[in-house]
TrEMBL record:
Belongs to the CvfB family. This is S1 RNA-binding domain-containing protein. It comes from Candidatus Mediterraneibacter faecavium. Residues 142-203 form the S1 motif domain. One of its GO terms (molecular function) is nucleic acid binding. SMART domains: S1. Pfam families: S1, S1_2, WHD_CvfB.
Length: 279
């Protein structure tokens, strides 16, 4: 009997409160409310094995949202004194211990986790999924991919599980705006590294991104009375904080707008031409 996995077991005994599955040496209860009608001793049935609130192994015919060796995004339904509790589709919520959290989670959060058996023989969740991620992605440079953020590092950047299975990183220099564990993202493959891991960018290739950045600047100026209170000589940090783009990307976009006659650049500000239309 394999805890945390779906498996086919045989009915060995029928009782008033359910049926026992397994063998004469090892058996587990499937509660009566989940026993199919007309099932008999000797019949096979597929079940999932976990432990109930009394730490007794029990079978269920319900489909859990995660099994051993797999990854899934689960919702936090409560936080207690020993950790958070996740909805994994079964009656008893799944414990995510504080020590297995890569960042503090709160009720309503969603996080990418894997399932493991702790030292007490109980099923628990962990956000430390890096070792389980694969490095044989089917993607190539400039492909568009979807994934889930599972860890944010000030030193390295944002760690992402592409398709919730492949190892990827948005390098720190490519991180713009707030990103958080559990966040769903769409990104471009910037590089496929020699070890099979992916480097991602949430920005498009330069020509397409330049258009998007230019429109973003125009929209920002329209909301501010046609004025941007700094120029491309501003500190990179201010540009990043104000517009969520690098100084190089800002200069490219401003250059495009200037060439199109949409803006005027002064000593300390950029103004929108009165007859300028949206891109």
């Amino acid at each position: 009997m394999r805890l945390g996995e779906r498996q086919v077991l045989t009915v060995v005994k029928k009782v008033e409160f359910g049926v026992y599955l397994g063998s004469d040496e090892e058996r587990v209860l499937l509660p009566k409310k989940q026993v199919p009608e007309e099932i008999e001793v000797g019949d096979p049935i597929e079940v999932f094995l976990y432990k109930d609130s009394s730490d007794r192994m029990i079978a269920t015919t319900r489909e859990p949202k995660i099994t051993i060796g797999k990854l899934a995004v689960l919702e936090v339904v409560d936080v207690g004194r020993i950790g958070a509790f996740l909805d994994w589709g079964l009656e008893k919520d799944l414990l995510l211990p504080f020590k297995e959290q890569t960042t503090k989670v709160e009720k309503g959060d969603r996080c990418l986790v894997s399932l493991y058996i702790d030292k007490s023989g109980r099923l628990c969740a962990t956000m430390k999924v890096y070792p389980l991620l694969r490095t044989d992605p089917p993607y190539k440079k400039d492909d568009t991919v979807q994934g889930t953020v599972y860890e944010v590092s000030r030193e390295f950047g944002v760690f992402v599980a592409v398709d919730n299975k492949y190892s990827a990183l948005i390098p720190r220099r490519e991180v713009y705006g707030r990103m958080y564990p559990g966040q769903k993202i769409e990104a471009r493959v910037a590089a496929v590294k020699a070890d099979g891991k992916l480097d991602l960018s949430i920005r498009h290739r330069i020509p397409e991104q330049m258009d998007a950045d230019a429109q973003k600047i125009v929209e920002r100026m329209e909301k501010s009375g046609g004025v941007l209170p700094f120029t491309d000589k501003a500190d990179p940090e201010r540009i990043r904080d104000e517009l969520g783009m690098s100084k190089a990307a800002f200069k490219r976009a401003v250059g495009r707008l200037l060439k199109q006659g949409k803006i005027n650049i002064g000593e300390a500000k950029i103004t929108l031409q009165s007859d300028a239309k949206r891109l």
